[in-house]
Batch of 2 targets.
Target 1
Amino acid sequence: MSDPQDQMSRFGSSSSSLLQGRRFYCREWALEKLQRCLDARSLPGQAPGLLVTGGPGAGKTALCTEVVWPTSKVGRAVGLAQRCLASHFCQREDQRSLVLWRFVLGLVEQLRASPVLSPGYQDILNSPSVASALEPLSCQRDPDDTFKRAVLGPLLDLPPPAQTLMLVVDSLDVEHGPSDREGKSGSIAELLAANQHLLPGWLLLVCSIRRHNKAVCKMFSGGAGLSCSFQRPEFLGSDHRGRDL
């Protein structure tokens, strides 16, 4: 059997943002609201997720990018990047970023490398039942099972970190389609929607979706909301010119 970590490095998808390194404009209020939601996540009755919505060009991807790789003074000051456990950017330009099983393996790879998780996570991944689920062929056959064995189950079992963390997934509705297998997820959106209520209380799921995609928005209707749509176009800046975010 191949080494699972080597397999994940070869086959997993840990996508970056096309806007990484671009200057962030005029949405500091959104970073502050996200910080408040993240700080409140562990309180009783709080929603497991935050849904970032808006039309094309409203700044959803720019916001998610600033959270993970801050360039602005406010973005660096709020310190959200240090509290991002993992991230994923779905891109039409990169079909690999839309493949469910690659997303799961890429997510595991980021969790494995995270300095904020207990070292016990690595021990869980090395257990025979989890290691077998991390084999690419096994994950292709049943990404839901791999997600539960290697991500959800371990996060629920590990001791909570010192502060609440978040998982950021951008453009979740790109190329979304319903599964043709009963009881199985057919997309990243379906997988996260089916398991969001099971996430540990110290983890906030932050997803961005175009507001006109009612079907996907409905899948995450139980969470808090953050709309980028009311920003005036002249405030959006050059990081949105010619790009459909």
Note: The first helix runs from residue 4 to 11.
Target 2
Amino acid sequence: MLSLFGTGAILMRGAGCTINDMWDRDFDKKVMRTANRPIAAGDISTFQSFVFLGGQLTLALGVLLCLNYYSIAMGAASLLLVVTYPLMKRITFWPQLALGQKR
């Protein structure tokens, strides 16, 4: 059970990072600290990043479906956080507050 949770957490954290890098690629190009990220630098295409994201989400769904119904519902609800958190950085200086409001 713990290994399933850990695997799912790693996959969803990775998916969140992938979504963030996809949405911020134009911003990341202009910031020295982030300009070398693979998507911002052009090393990985938008299509390739979508394929990678799809793989991450598919594997995470496979892990999620091994759990009970309550865990599945909580996991599905957390997908909203994974998608919206990167966007919160654009409208507030406290994006973590948005995470806290959605629990």
Note: DSSP finds six helices and no strands in the chain.
